[in-house]
Amino acid sequence: METAPHRTPGPLPDIGEYAIPLPAGTPTDPAALLAAHTRVRAALSDETAGASGADLRVTVTDGTLRLRYRAGVLDADAAARIAGYHLTALAHPDRRSLLSEDELRFQLEELAGPVRELPDRRVHELFEERVGKHPDAVAAVQDDRRWTYAELNSRANRIGRALLARGLTAEDVVAVVMERNLDWMAAVLGVLKAGGVYLPIEPHFPAERVARTLSRAGCAFVVTEEGSTGSLSGTSAETLFVDTAYAEGHAGDDLGIPVRADQLAYIYFTSGSTGEPKGAMCEHAGFVNHVLAKVEDLGIGEDDVVAQTAPQCFDISLWQLLAATLVGGRTLIIGQETVLDVPRFVDTVVRGRVHVLQVVPSYLEAVLAELGRRPRELADLRCVSVTGEAVKRELVQRWFAVAPGIRLANAYGLTETSDDTNHEVMDRVPDGDRVPLGRPVRNVRVYVVDEDLVPVPLGAPGEIVFSGVCVGRGYVNDPERTAAAFTTDPYRPGERLYRSGDMGRWRADGKLEFLGRRDTQVKIRGFRVEIGEIENALLRVDGVRDGAVVVVRGTQLAAFCAGPEPVAADTVRARLAVSLPSYMVPAVVHWRQRLPLTANGKTDRRALTALAEDLDAGAAGEPVTAGERRLADAWAEVLGVPADRIGRLDHFFDRGGSSLSAVRLAIALDRAVTLQDVVRHPVLADLADLLDRRS
């Protein structure tokens, strides 16, 4: 008897076939086979199971399950796995997992990162070993300042001793509130050497947010510098100025403070859905494992230069700062003003002989645009890493068209997992439509699971979760949110597991692929943003009774407010700026009498997103002059907005513009305007008038 619940008339071209005997007693009636096939199809993604009925047929004949498939869609290994899933679904219809024991072992063991024994050293101790080997070599450069390994080490030791003299004990939290400079580097090392926990704070962050961060972290000490204390009003933590630490006469030799592998190294705060930022706590073992993975996979060696470009509160800033100094290389700190001036940035990378560089994909697009307009030879650059946003295949194509000899590394990870956990280092454009996240780095285990933490079939979509040395301790002083995201690894009792909320799947080549988020968390300018945190801040604005935030075109935040009387959009944005960093303040604010609701009474976010896009189309007045039309075309290019939706009275930053997109605008206009011009003349008609007068 033959039962074929899923078939299409006509022959299959390029046929492959896989047969597997059915155990005695296995149901083979049409209803059972249909149910099994339906379950398997539901569990698998189209990329694995075949895009249509013409790609796959399952039949049972004489006690044998036969799977016939289009060879161009499935390979033999995938066909064998799918046949096995059918066998499990038939023989064990109540079993939660379709995976065989062999595939379960394969996913848990073979797809993990290679095991490496970590040195019994912390990051700062590996740095100290390098100081002993070449004290007079240059360790760090910022503009015209150059510090040798010996000088950097001595300054860090003096800061560490100044903290100890003030009573610092193991795992006391130390906020470092400084600009990105050489003294910041010394302060970070000094905190680690003294056994403290590094907490980065950007000096320009709103004082209210800084106060909440310090309070949540239980911060005991603040290390800062003159000119960076504006956001520190009201803090009870003891404050140490770096110049004071240098002047107190402390010894410059190594402290020798014992620091355990499981001791906290740092806390990075990310956006939180309850209205309060979450402070992810990571330990020294995960920290050193990550930095060594960067050294190995990006090929950082002695005498190599690594560019430090990321803001302090972006976790990638830490490996950028210290990785080179663990192997005898050099850190080049590139200031934010230079980063925002793309031509100057590219010149700095060339002049500084940078070997390894990491940027977000949107910034790499700006770099490529600049190289297209003014080509330069990137003679020393060997590897560029992109992170913080999903990278598109088209960008990879453009990169290798411009720089075919320079590797491109797609880095993926989360703050809670000691930063990056996966590297896909490419020397050519990858196959397929998506750029993979690559394989896990050493000592990191990644699973793709269902809601019950059961691994899903290879190729099927599921939540990406992490186990191993990379997993942090949880969120500081936040047991509820820690319990929601951190748990015990069910496959390795006693080890921590982190649920990321990211969705992904395993490709046939054993590399991870990112499919999106399962919640309301989004990436804005490379930063993780919880929509809920912004909405909670909205509700604290006087006069706002209800509020919602949606993402327009994937890059712009739009807020909707409701209440008895309208509150001006500028007032709402100004109030939000008191407690939120600039990248979390919505570009536009709309007022409504009430927010639309779904049938079950929840805010209708789909309707709000559509409304925001419609409102976005209602630009104020069509461009009139040739200069205005030219500028509208340029705005459309950098903002991702149709040109016919841009009006002459539109405000660049209210339309979703940022400092980075203003830089891209200047490049698109052949540098006829500068970043400062866009800031001073953000209205299209005004900027067009400036362009016309210069012409």
TrEMBL record:
Sorted alphabetically, which InterPro entries does this protein's record hold? AA_adenyl_dom, ACP-like_sf, AMP-bd_C, AMP-bd_C_sf, AMP-binding_CS, AMP-dep_synth/lig_dom, PKS_PP-bd, PP-bd_ACP
What SUPFAM superfamilies does the record point to? Acetyl-CoA synthetase-like, ACP-like
- PROSITE patterns per record: AMP_BINDING, CARRIER
Write out the entry's keywords from A to Z: Phosphopantetheine, Phosphoprotein
Give residue ranges for domain Carrier.
Answer: 622-695
Gene3D superfamilies in alphabetical order? 3.30.300.30, 3.40.50.980, ACP-like, Luciferase, Domain 3
Q: Name one Pfam family in it.
A: PP-binding
Q: Which NCBIfam families match?
A: AA-adenyl-dom
Please give the name of this protein: Non-ribosomal peptide synthetase
